[in-house]
Amino acid sequence: MVYSRYGWSSNIRDIHRLLYKMAVGQILARRFTTSAVRRFHVDEGPGNNLPFSVANKWRLLGVMTLFFGSGFAAPFLVVRHQLLKK
What we know:
Elements: E1 2-4, E2 7-9, H1 12-39, H2 57-84
Antiparallel strand pairs: 1-2
């Protein structure tokens, strides 16, 4: 017995159609996940999954100072601009 959109059915054709849809869905899902995993290989280890290099500590210090310093200084620069504006 299979429950279709028309209600419960014991029709063998409906059973085959349901099993086929389930099998095709599983095959497509399996193909997608395995192909997605095979295409991408990322080197393991510390620093390899970051969008910037951590090899040179002085360059990293400069980049981080600019990044965080600009975010910290922005409100003060906006207030200064507003106070100097006539």
